[in-house]
Structure prediction request, 140 residues.
Amino acid sequence: MAGEVLWQEPLVWMAGDSYRDSSAALTGGALPLALFGENCVLRLAVMAALARAGMPWSLQYSGSSTTGLCHAVRCGLGLTALPRSLLAPGIAEISAVDGQMLPALPDVRLLAEHAPGAVTTAAQRFVLLMGAAMAVRRAN
Prediction:
């Protein structure tokens, strides 16, 4: 995919402390998940990784905000996959559930792409500002 990468980081599996401390992580053999809505690129990446690994899953929570999703995960409703920078108190990165390795996930990227033709000064300025904001984010 063409475009200027403004930000990139790993997409990682996460679970709330209450979920990680539970002895019954898998319910009926299906991985309980808390995900964004149907057309979210993060949800699609998770579903594709699980399909490639042949791992069954069950949607336990679907939301449209990072805050809501993190609360659902923190409360133990299920696992999720988010950019590593969204780890928060009560949520930890995990790599396996009940001894079963979770599939690898891709990195997430924020790209700046321009439509064909002349790039406006405003568009160039916007990309510069977004790039600077992402550089600050990387530094923190």
Observations:
- The CA atoms of residues 87 and 93 lie 7 Å apart.
- The chain has one domain: 4-139.
- The chain has four helices and eight strands.
- Residues 121-139 form the longest helix (19 residues).
